[in-house]
Amino acid sequence: MIHIWNDILLLGPILVVSFVALIVLVLEALMERTETLNCWISIVGLAVGIGVAANGIAVSRPVFDGMLTTGGYASYCAIVFCLAGMLSVMLSKHYIKKARIQHGEFYALVLLAVVGMMLMGAAADLLMLFIGLELMSVSFYVLAGFARERLTSDEAALKYFLLGAFATGFLLYGIALVYGTARTTRIPNIILQAATLSGDPVFLIGLALLLIGLAFKVAAVPFHMWVPDVYEGSPTTVSGFMSTGGKAAAFSIILIIFAPQVLTHVTSLREVLAALAVLSMVVGNVIAISQHSIKRMLAYSSIAHAGYILTGVVAANVYGQNGVLFYILAYTFMNVGAFGVLSILESKEGDNLTFDDYAGLSSSHPLLAGLMALFMFSLTGIPPFAGFFGKYYVFAGAVEAGYTWLAIVGVLMSVVSAYYYLRVIVVMYFREKGVDVPESATTLDMAALLASAFGIVALGLFPSFVLQLTSRFF
User: Fold this and answer.
1) Could you count the other beta carbons within 10 Å of the beta carbon of residue 306?
2) Does residue 434 surpass a pLDDT of 80?
3) Which of 37, 120, 233, 368 has the fewest CB atoms inside 10 Å of its own CB, making it the most exposed?
4) What pLDDT is recorded for position 59?
5) Which pLDDT tens digit goes with each residue over 206-218?
6) What number is the average pLDDT over the span 33-44?
7) Residue 437 neighbours by CB under 8 Å, 6+ apart
């Protein structure tokens, strides 16, 4: 009994955020007009979750008979997920009121999604992976359709739910086949058996089905079709949260399951991952060029970024793994910030999302324009911002692993991405004022955007701090 309680106490970040989610749900059920209170409770709860995770990051150990891990890798992932959730909540307070979707359960759903992400990052068993993935996904299905009076939001929720359920079927079937061959659902044990099972076609099919289910969550081509419509139809702050926290959670488990030991022995799977990376980078960047909506452009660019991060997974070395962990943290700051600026300037009717609407923004909203330019520079991969070092580390890992051609494709596609990212800056600073954008940012909005900007600059100036930390996990 004492052993179980010790295990429970070690799951600090998950327990804290779960408890806060329950508090928010109870307050919403028992009181009226709890939206503001629930918002602040959520922010404080996620901040405490970050603190607890940071405090326990030094020591890593399995709990609950090896089904979950605590500390180390799990704590780092928990920090990233809580950051994504906290910044999204801060940006959502004014946005959901403006969009007339101010309901207290919004914050409970964000918190529960974060709990699901943390379960994925801490999973050492395929069953825990599935529980965390579904908790996150169900929360996202509801959040995508939260603006239920808008047909685009309803459409986004329906598409995400149907395709998400379809992907879950692949994932479950893959778990069943892997279990049937490895005789275990413990991920470390499966990795240890990868060498002996690499010639078993059933095991290979199981891994392929697992990859399909997870590729859907990271929006890798050809499992990306849902992304543009879902991101465009969802509330803007939700789109930012899904594109960062959801993607980071899926990559956290991809990095665990498709470890170097697995990819070294199952070479065909490594080549498939390389193909997915190339397709994602090419398709995402090329189609993003033709978009007129900045929101859809960011949706397609998120597909491209999935390809960049997959490059680090394909590398199957410590450099690539560290690059992936650095990238998901940097991408969280970059994309939450970009979607945050969109959410502030978006009108009550859901307008002001096209490139033309941002003409002359530097005159009417100089600070917002400057922050948006910073986020665009970082997403492009221009030094000395975090985006540059994220790409550098995953590409360097690929070169070290002998996948120089993959790194070259990534660099070329980054050049292509400069067209549509820098186009936003050109429109804001070098075009005459277009549509009037009367919306302005609240103090909480600006705090979230400035925190994101600070994270981008700090990671760009001191990238070794994160790398020294993540190098202990592998």
Assistant:
1) 28
2) no
3) 37
4) 78
5) 999 999 999 999 9
6) 88
7) 345, 352, 357, 358, 361, 364, 365
Rounded to an integer, what distance in angstroms lies between the CA atom of residue 15 and that of residue 64? Answer: 14
Rounded distance between C-alpha atoms, residue 130 and residue 257, angstroms: 13
Which residues, in sequence order, are bridge partners of residue 125?
Answer: 186
Distance (Å, whole) CA 222 – CA 324: 21
Helix (H, G, I), strand (E, B) or coil at 27: helix
Structure tokens that stand for 209 in this block: 């089905």
Flag the least confident range among 144-153, 232-241, 304-313, 452-461.
Answer: 144-153
Neighbour-count burial of 201, counting CB atoms closer than 10 A to its CB (0-12 exposed, 13-18 middle, 19+ buried): exposed
Instruction: Tell me what pLDDT residue 221 has.
Output: 87
**Nearest of 131, 240, 105, 262 to residue 187 by alpha carbon:** 262
Give the count of domains, the chain: 1
Q: What is the DSSP string of 143-164?
A: HHT-STTSHHHHHHHHHHHHHH
What is the rounded CA–CA span in Å between residue 193 and residue 261? 9
pLDDT tens for each residue of 268-302: 899 999 999 999 999 999 999 998 889 999 999 99
291 φ, ψ (degrees, to nearest 5): -80, 140
> How far is residue 115's CA from residue 135's CA, in Å, rounded to a whole number?
8
d(CA 302, CA 284): 7
Residue bearing the bigger pLDDT, 105 or 88: 88
Residue 306 near residue 280 (C-beta atoms within 8 A)? yes
* 121 close to 73: Cβ distance less than 8 angstroms: yes
Which structural domain, as residue segments, surrounds residue 250? 2-473
Q: How far is CA 409 from CA 57, 132, 223, 282, 412, in A?
A: 35, 33, 20, 8, 5
Tokens 């022995």 found at: 265
Reading the block at residue 301, the tokens are 């660019």
**In a 3-state reduction of DSSP, which class is residue 186?**
strand
Confidence of residue 240 (pLDDT cuts 50, 70, 90): very high
Question: How many CA atoms, within 13 angstroms, populate the side-chain half-sphere of residue 402?
Answer: 4
DSSP sequence for 29-90: HHSSS-HHHHHHHHHHHHHHHHHHHHHTSS--EEETTTTEEESHHHHHHHHHHHHHHHHHHH
Rounded to whole angstroms, how far apart are CA atoms 443 and 433? 25
CB of 371 closer than 8 Å to CB of 341: yes
- Quick check: 450 and 458 in contact, CB under 8 A? no
Phi-psi label, residue 154: left if phi above 0, alpha if psi -120 to 50, beta otherwise: alpha
CA distance 306 to 284: 9
